[in-house]
Design brief:
The complex is a heterodimer of chains A (145) and B (210). With 145 residues, chain A is mainly α. Chain A is built from five helices and no strands. Chain B has nine helices and five strands. Chain B has 210 residues and is α+β, with helices and mostly antiparallel strands. Chain B starts with a helix and ends with a helix. Chain B has helices at 5-28, 37-40, 66-81, 101-112, 117-126, 136-142, 147-155, 157-176, 197-208; strands at 46-49, 55-61, 86-92, 184-187, 190-191. The chains are: A mainly alpha (145), B alpha+beta (210). Chains A and B meet through helix 1, helix 2 and helix 3 of A and helix 1 of B.
């Protein structure tokens, strides 16, 4: 990895950790049925109490945590082995593509079905879009070098 | 295996994150000082039971919140079971997502001015699914309230503003002590973490039977 790629990978790693932590905070609230600090009024509560936030019985923040954990692992492994780095970048692209599809579906669900927006879910959605964009930039940088 | 400097940096970031989480968890799980009775139960707060009861339970609630309805039956059972040992207090915490949360709180307070707060509370929860029709006059009729006074409290802008100010003062206080969900209970000043209505009975009876 060249210097630019390294920086991009570092940012993706840190954003993935941030996403994982947000997911952990919201998941504990889902499991303990306790309130969530929310700047979007009662949106977080509406989302937490909706059955739509448990696709196939799995709380949405658990899906987010799993996705971010996978990204943490991938971005970390890219630093370990230079040969694997390119291959793992495609894995990151696959994961973030699934990620943006998932957050887009859930944002739609929040806005039009639950009719409440959870601040943490919105931040996490933006976070996933940023990681996806950084992945695309990383691929371009790699192709140029 | 020899680690690259980049890998070491990532391990460092990860270790730092774990450290921050550990510190945050220690701070967040530290027991907080109980709130005093004077802080939680104001002279204007609606209460039921013995004023000097050794056990006091304060509820922050919203008449349009389904979980609050589930808990209201438990609270009513507790006070009828322990009328001499327990004091219960109701504080308003209407949520923004419920359009009738504030009007129903005003209706309850207006009934309270005529000595029928708890009767109105039960009616509001029992008819929660009808609250969007704003059936407060029907409820006042059913409780035998003075309708002129009740309607004045609800519809006269000045009287309504005074009651609304009282309701919103409860909300401000609730926000200041970190309430972000309904219902939230304080038992002898200690915030309870409850998963189900039955847990409230257990917590209260544990203290009463100590």
């Amino acid at each position: 990895m060249n210097a630019k790629e390294k920086n991009l990978n570092r940012i993706m790693f840190i954003l993935s950790i941030a996403g994982f932590l947000m997911g952990a905070y919201v998941l504990q609230s889902f499991l303990r049925q306790t309130g969530i600090i929310c700047l979007t009024g009662g949106g977080c509560e509406a989302v937490r109490k909706s059955a739509l936030s448990y696709p196939f019985g799995v709380p949405v923040p658990a899906v987010g945590m799993a996705g971010y954990a996978f990204l943490i692992g991938l971005t970390f492994l890219r630093t370990v082995n230079e040969k694997l780095s390119t291959k793992l970048l495609w894995w990151v692209l696959g994961m973030t593509t699934f990620g943006i599809c998932f957050v887009t579906w859930f944002t739609y669900t929040e806005l039009f079905l639950i009719k409440g927006v959870c601040m943490w879910c919105a931040i996490s959605a933006v976070n996933m879009y940023i990681i996806f964009a950084l992945t695309i930039i990383s691929i371009k940088v790699r192709k140029q070098s | 295996m020899k680690l690259t400097s980049e890998t070491k940096l990532f391990i460092g970031i990860f270790a730092f994150t774990i450290l921050i989480i550990t510190v945050a968890m220690v701070i967040m799980t530290r027991p907080t000082k109980p709130l005093t009775k004077e802080e939680l139960i104001l002279p204007t707060t609606n209460t039921k039971g013995q004023k000097d009861a050794p056990v006091w339970l304060v509820e922050f609630s919203d008449f349009q919140c389904p979980a609050c309805k589930a808990f209201s039956g438990v609270v009513a059972d507790l006070i009828s079971k322990y009328p001499d040992k327990l004091l219960i207090a109701y504080r308003y915490f209407p949520l923004d997502i419920h359009p009738q949360a504030i009007p129903s709180a005003i209706a309850a307070e207006a009934a309270g001015k005529q000595g029928k707060f708890w009767e109105m509370e039960q009616l509001l929860f029992a008819n929660q699914e009808r609250l969007n029709e704003a059936p407060y006059k029907d409820f006042a009729n059913a409780l035998g309230l003075n309708l002129d006074r009740f309607e004045n409290d609800l519809f006269n802008p000045e009287a309504n503003a005074i009651i609304k100010k009282l309701v919103m003062a409860d909300v401000s206080y609730g926000n200041s002590i970190g309430i972000n969900a309904t219902p939230t209970f304080f038992l002898n000043g200690v915030k309870l973490n409850l998963l189900a209505p039955a847990d409230l009975t257990k917590e209260v009876e544990n203290i009463i039977n100590k």
